[in-house]
Amino acid sequence: MGDKPPGFRGSQSWIGCVEASLCLDHFGGPQGRLCHVPRGAGLQGELERLYSHFAGGGGPVMVGGDADAQSKALLGVCLGPGTEAYVLVLDPHCWGAPKNPSELQAAGWVGWQEVSTAFDPHSFYNLCMTSCNSKEQNRALD
Prior knowledge:
By secondary structure, the protein is an alpha+beta fold. The chain has helices spanning 17-26, 47-55, 101-106, 115-118, 135-141; strands at 31-37, 61-65, 72-79, 85-90, 110-114, 125-131. The protein has one domain: Cathepsin B, Chain A. The protein is 25% helix and 27% strand. It is globular.
């Protein structure tokens, strides 16, 4: 796409959510809408947006941070009573075809995590919310 130096191609360097969103757009994949959260503690304030994203048929949400360098993909949100909230987290390093969902959970590839412990409160996060909507529809959601 021309945004990286020539040595990037073929390397084992990683890209973040911003670059993933650019790739989706460049290669004609699903639309990727970015949301920057300055501190992990602020994710509590984004739960309604995430819930609406999934309830509206939105796809996986790619998550990247700075101090928290562990990649995550969010597959769902569960808002409990009070301030209790959980996210369904998939480790994006998961590969291969599982025999069944229980195998994924047992191997630690996917599971529900409490929001207050799943994210570093001091790390910033970029969320890339994927959707099959057009760019115009995504702008209307902002």
